Structure formats: structure tokens, C-alpha cells
Amino acid sequence: MLKNYLKIAWRNLIKNKVFSIANIVGLTCAFAVAILLSMTALFELSFDQFHENKDSAYQLYLTNQTPRGTESSTSSPVPLAGALKEEVPGIKRTTRTLSEDALVSYKEKDFSLDGEYVDPDFFNIFTFPVIAGNSENPFSSKSSVSITQETALKIFGTTDVVGEVIQIRTGAVEHPFTIASILENIPSNSSMDFDIAIPFENHPEYANNMDRWDSQFHLVYLELEDGVTPEQFEKNTREFTSIHYKGSIENAIRDGAVANADGLYKQFHLQPIADIHFTSFATGTAEVKRTFPYMILGIAFVILFIVCANFINMNIALNEKRLKEIGMRKTLGAVKQQLFFQFWMESLLVFMISIFLGLVLGNLLLEPFKSLFNTRATLDYVTQPGILLIFALSIFCITLIAGGYPALLMSRLGTLRALKGKLDLGKNRLRNSLIVLQFAIAILLISGTLVLHGQIEFMRNKDLGYNKEQVISIPLNGKKDSYRAIELLRDELKSNTQILNISGADNNLGLGRDGSAMSSMMGFDYQGRGVVTNAITVDYDYAKTLDLELVAGRMFSRDFAADSLSLVINETMAKQLGQDDPLSVRIPMDESITYSVVGVVKDYNFQDISKQVSPLTLFMNQDWDLYYAYVKIAPENIAESFDAVERAWKKIEPQAEFLGSFLDENVDRTFKREKTMATIITSGSILGILLSCIGLFAISMLVVAQRTKEIGVRKVIGASVASVALLLTKDFLKLVGLAFIIATPISWYFLNDWLQNYASHVSLSPWFFLGAGLTATFIAFLTVGSRTVRAASANPVKSLRNE
User: Fold this and answer.
1) 447 versus 712: which is more confidently predicted?
2) Count helices and strands in the chain by DSSP H and E runs
3) Which of 276, 290, 557, 586 is deepest in the core (most CB within 10 A)?
4) Would you say residue 176 has pLDDT above 70?
5) Whole-prediction pTM
6) SS3 of 698, please?
7) Residue 361, phi then psi, degrees to nearest 5
8) What is the C-alpha to C-alpha distance for residues 470 and 638, in angstroms, rounded to an integer?
């Protein structure tokens, strides 16, 4: 029986070649794309799921009630972790962590590595397996370190290096460290990525801040004891917080802060480590948003829906030609179940062929897909037993719905109606509903694409308040003192007329090639109230190099020896100080040192460009290190000037890698996620509209075939080609118009909500939605019109003769 089902199914596929090919091509493309998109989404959702203690390990953060509202901080003071474990019940382990570049030397070779300063319990809280050395205690002493397999191969060429000694620069001094253990390479789905783990006590800021609660610069993670919940932990820390943060709580009350719902001004919270990759603190509290992977899965789903809708429509339309066959089978004794399985088997055969071809195509497109969408996902994420079972069930459900519905519709027909060749589908309501839904989805994707690209261009072309096209930022990752390195760079390039200015700072603008980003905040009392500001340490010529606009006073100058006690602030900081003349402000940072404001610069985006410009204070104190050099070049011969800067750097720091990049490149890297989203949605909209058009073209062919006699009669009585083509086309265009009416308000709602994540964004113009609607209408018109014009141009004698 099964053999007969397959034989008849194959014959019908061959008989209707055009429609079979249309279905197989559409399904193949949809399955290939769905596999690749699902792979990417599952990779994103797998972040930090490999940690064995993921259900009991958390990141600590503190919410602060301020006059500006609720603010959150993940940075903690050095003594906090130890004090928490001693004074707060329910904590099993704690660890401090701080990510910072580590300059490692071995046999006169220098290596810039991603370092992680951690406490020993770090390896008990997180799952980073030790493959060589002491797995129970990866740090045998304060002067020992752990490195990954990849790092061992990079430095030594082998992983058998336990006991080897390397030099690590901590602060301004190099110290010897012994390699105590080798770790497995950090998984690609880990939020924490490092090459070398160093005992926290070796950090240069550790000794000076051992007992200070007002200096916060590292993260704290902890593991709770069995049975202790995060809510219990939060309650247990209330008394602890009131004791250790008494002064800052009193200041918050003095400044007019409003207590939270629990009547507290500071409160510790826990964030599960499995959620860290998706957590944002933009609103003052931790928000977990898995929007990106769910959006990818959603696009995969709608692509499958579009192609399945095509399949249903074409199957129902094609099966109208087989009504007499159904009637004859029923007359000869065929039962409903036999007819159902025959039609379902034909659908299942198409799906099986398409799934096989989709797997082949997906594998062929894997590497280009990974490059295009900048993902490290692999097909391993979709070949896990659980995922394969879900896919198998999904395919079964899809075939049951997409193939089974037409089969059920045909098998339930009465014998007489089938023999008469009549199929009443309620004026094609199902077909029309599916077409409307397909094009509504396509219009949603197109409008999303237009708005996303508009927002990216808006951010790319936004005036950030500084010169980003002509300035190169260079991480100071060499051995020389940062100020000395910048001075040598000035000397090396002073004869080059294309080099206009050189300066430095302790933070980068945008995201450089080194992948690091740094921010520093400080607070102080001014005229009886608390003031919070971002702080950046800079070198001479900072404003001149970046083309910052000075609105009052002056910048730091070599002519003023006391500028180490001077400040330059931005306009937002000046407003926060509330003085008519900000140059008259004197700020006592502690009992013995007072800083004077000597200049005010116009606000510029020194942070993520999606944020509002915050208060900023510039310092110039050569006791504080710089981490980046800035080089401004002339707009002519940019490539030659960049090469000259690179040569000068290699001469100054021959062992250090040159990681210079233009600031506009750095800014582009900060919205990499937006560009990836735009690429995915653009690709999804293109594929969605193409698949919709494949179905629309096939349906239009069947409609034209059904109205052949009508076309011939209209031509005989004088109808023009244009009028006949319009008659056949307008019904489809009405469906696209209805899809536009449905999709536009939905699209506006979601896009408007998404744009609220940006402090400044593109305006949601009606042209975005009109453009999406007109694009869908134009493509649909070309798809249907090409077929209808051909039918309307045919000789009416041939049309009538066929009848």
C-alpha cells in the first residue's frame, strides 16, 4: 500500500513540474535559513549555561536611591566581598573579578593578553575546567597564575608548561609569576572571556584600597548555600548595608532622594549568572532582555509560515484539478482515510525532499552566514538530541498542518460534488487570508528594515561633538610609561606635516580593536549636596586633538604648573553644579586638596551614543595612568598618515601589537548589535517577500487558467489588454492593500517602543511605512502582472477553442 502511495505521489509531482519546483525551492530555502537562524538563536540562548553552579551563582549589584531616581552599580569596593561572607548568613563562596589587559613577557617576547584578576573561589563558582596542574587549587600561591590552552600554545608552543615562569607587568613594575595550571579554552558562549587568571591581590589598586569603601572598581560574584533564595539574601543584607553605607545613605536623604518600596536607600540584589549576557541596567534596575535571540527565532518562524502558506494555497488550488479523480476513487470504494493518506503522502514526500536539500544548502551556506552575521555559532547547537527531537516534532506538525489540511479538505468531499468538479472554499477566504497574512509579515519586516537602517545611519552621521573622522586611537599596551610613550610618539611624528596633534586619555571613545571599554565615576559633596560625575584623565592638547569646543575658560596648558589641581568640565556638569559662573567653582575633594574649574567644554558623546550625555570632569594628573593615545591627522593622504603612525608606534614599542583605529570605526563597533539585527531583518524581509511572490505567482497562474474562457470572451467583445490585466490583478493588489492596513499600526507600535531605547533617534516618519507598503505592492504587481498581461495578450480564439 505504501509503495502505491509513493508511486502515485511521485507521478503527481512530475505531472505538475512548475508547482512542484516552486514548492521544493521555497521549502528548501526556508528550511536552510530556519536551520541557520535557529543555530544562531540557540547559540545566543546558551550563553553561560555550561556553568555547573548556574542555579546558585549570582552577580552582585547595588541599587541606590538618588535625587535623579534609582541607579544601579555593579562596581564594588575591595573589602565588600570578605565582609559579606563574614557578616551575612547564607553565602557559600565569594569572588572578586576585574577584567584588565595583562602585558606578559617570556624570553624577550611580549604578549598582550586578556587578564582576569580573581580570588581562588572563582574556580569553584564558575566552571572553567583545569586540564593540567592542581584542579582543586589552580592558584598555588599569590605569585601563581592560570592560563588557557590557547594562551599556552601562543606563548610556549605547547601546553606542557606547568611550572614555567613568566613576567607580568602590574602597574609600573614587572613581577615573576609561575604557571600553576592550564585551563580548557573559554567556551565561545561565555560572557566572561580571558586568557590568563591572576590572583586579585596582585592588582596595582589592591593595596591602596584594601580598607576603602568609597573606591569601587571591580565586580563581585557569589554562590548561595543550598536552600537560600536571592530574596532571603536581599533581606539578610539590609542591616549590613545600613552599617557599611551609613554615610552615603545619610547624604542621599539630605539631597532629597526618595526611598524605594521597602523604605531603603541602598539595597543589594543578585543577578543569576545565566542571565548576565542579556542584562541591562539602563533603567536603574536589572532588566533581562532576550529580544535578539527571540527575534531571530521569530524570523525563522515567519519564513516557515510564509512558505507553508504557499504550500497550502498551491495544494488546494492544484487539487481542484483532481476532483474527478477523487470522485472516481470514492465510487470504486476508496474510504476517507485512504484518500487522506494519499494526499498527505504527496505532501510528506515534498517536505522530505526539501528538508534534505535544506540541510545540504544550510551546510554550504554555514561559513558565509557566520561571516555575514558575525556569529561563532556552529551546527552543534542544532544537532543536540533534545533539539533534534523538537525539530522532528516541529516538522511532523508542519507537514500535518501544511500537507494534512489540503488532504483532509479533499478527502472529505462528497462523491457527487467531486465528480461534478465543484469545490466550494467560501469564495477562497482561506487562500486570501493566507496571502494577506504573508504580505502583512513581509511589510512588517520591510518597515523594520527601513527604520533600523535609518537609525544606524542617524547614529553614524550624528554630530558627537568631536572629530571622529581624522583621529586615530591607539591602546597603550606596551611596557613604557604611558606619558613617556605619548611624548616619544610626539617626537617621532613632529616632522610629519600630516600629523596635526597628539594627546592621550584613560578611556577610549567608542570601542577600539582591543575590545575594551572603560568608565570611571566619582562623587563628592558640593555646597551641602552630593554630586556625581564621570571622570577622565587626559593629557595636554586633548581638546585640540579631538576638536572639542571650549565654551568658557581654557583647557589644560603647559604654561600653568598647577593644572594638576585644575578641572575642565562639560556643560551638563556645569548645570549640575548650578553656578552662574562655573569658573568660580572650587571643589574640595578631601580635607587637604581643592580643585579649581578652569574651563567648560561643550557636551560631547564620551559614552555609548545611545545614552544621554552625562556630567563629565576632566583631570590632568600625571600620577594617574593613561591607556590610549589620540593622533589627529590631516584629511589628505589618510592611509599614508595611518601607516606613518603605525611605523612610529612599532619603533617606540617594538614588542607591543599596534591596535590603532579611527574613532569612526570605534563608534561603528558600539552598534554592532544593531547592524547585525538590520542584516538579519533585511535578509528575512527579502526572503519573505520572494517566497510570498513565488506563491502569488503560482496562484495567479491557476487563477488565469481557471478564467481562460472569461478572458477569451472579454477579448472578443472588445476588452483591451490593459483592462483585462487590471481585472485579473486588482483582486491580488486589494489583498496587499489590506495587508498594509493591518501591518502598519502593529509595525509602528513595536518600532516606536524599540526606538525609546535610544536617547536620540530617528523620527518615525510615515514614509518608512509607505515605503514598505509601496515596495510590497510594486513587487506583487510585477509578480502577478507579468502573468496576467501574458494571459490578456493571448489570442482569444485559442482560449475559446480550449473550452
Assistant:
1) 447
2) 26, 25
3) 276
4) yes
5) 0.82
6) helix
7) -65, -40
8) 8
> Higher model confidence: residue 542 or residue 287?
542
Give the DSSP letter of residue 538: B
Other beta carbons within 10 angstroms of residue 562's beta carbon come to 8
Please compute the mean of the pLDDT values over residues 630-657 and round it to a whole number.
90
Instruction: Tell me what the mean pLDDT of segment 232-245 comes to.
Output: 92
Alpha carbons 54 and 761: distance in angstroms, whole number: 37
Residue 750: strand pairing partners: none
Cα dihedral 712, 718, 722, 724, rounded to 10, equals -40
Cell 502577478, located at residue = 784
Runs of H (alpha helix) within 365-475 = 366-373, 385-398, 404-411, 415-420, 429-461
Cα dist from 253 to 24, 72, 256, 573, 693, whole Å: 69, 17, 5, 22, 64
Distances (CA, A) of 177 to 118, 145, 148, 164, 167: 15, 7, 15, 8, 6
Cα dihedral 153→157→160→164 (10° resolution): -100
pLDDT digits (tens, 9 = 90+) for 742-759: 999 999 998 988 888 887
Report residue 578's pLDDT band, with 50, 70 and 90 as the boundaries. Answer: confident
Q: Which residues of 405-415 are buried (b: 16+ CB within 10 A; e: fewer)?
A: bbbebbbebee
Contact residues for 281 (Cβ-Cβ < 8 A; gap 6+): 61, 72, 74, 287
pLDDT above 80: residue 398: no
- Give the number of other CB atoms < 10 A from CB of residue 759: 12
Are 256 and 66 contacting, i.e. CB atoms less than 8 angstroms apart?
no
Copy the grid coordinates of residue 197.
Answer: 587568571
CB-based contacts of 116: which residues, under 8 Å, 6+ apart? Answer: 97, 98, 99, 122, 192, 194, 196, 197, 198
> What one-letter code names the amino acid at 240?
F
Cell of 460: 553614524
In terms of DSSP bridges, do strands 196-199 and 109-118 run parallel, antiparallel, or are they unpaired? Answer: parallel
Q: What is the pLDDT of residue 716?
A: 66
DSSP class per residue in 85-152: HHHSTTEEEEEEEEEEEEEEEETTEEEEEEEEEE-TTHHHHS---EEEE-SS-S-SSTTEEEEEHHHH
| Alpha carbon distances (Å) from 678 to 272, 444, 687 | 29, 13, 14
Residue 395 has pLDDT above 80, yes or no: no
Q: pLDDT tens digits for 596-622?
A: 999 999 999 988 888 888 899 999 988
Cβ-count burial 160-170 (b if 16+ within 10 Å, e if not): ebbeeebebbb
Nearest-CA neighbor of 24 among 320, 433, 360? 360
Element (H, E) at 566: strand 566-570
Q: Are strands 566-570 and 130-133 parallel, antiparallel or unpaired?
A: unpaired
CA–CA dist 510, 664 (Å, integer): 8
Confidence band of 426 (pLDDT split at 50, 70, 90): very low
**Torsion 420-423-427-431 (CA) sign:** negative
Q: Which of 595 and 9 is assigned the larger pLDDT?
A: 595
Across residues 677-688, what is the average pLDDT? 84
Given a contact cutoff of 8 angstroms between Cβ atoms, the answer to whether 215 and 183 are in contact is no
> Hey, which residues does 287 pair with through a beta bridge?
280
The whole-angstrom distance between residue 471's C-alpha and the CA centroid of its chain comes to: 27
Smallest CA-to-CA distance from 597 within 538, 559, 556 is with 556
| pLDDT of 403 strictly over 80 | no
CA distance 189 to 48: 6
Structure confidence by residue, pLDDT tens digits, 363-393: 998 888 888 888 888 888 777 787 788 877 8
pLDDT (tens digit per residue) in 45-75: 999 999 999 999 999 999 988 887 888 888 8
Statement: residue 124 has pLDDT above 60: yes
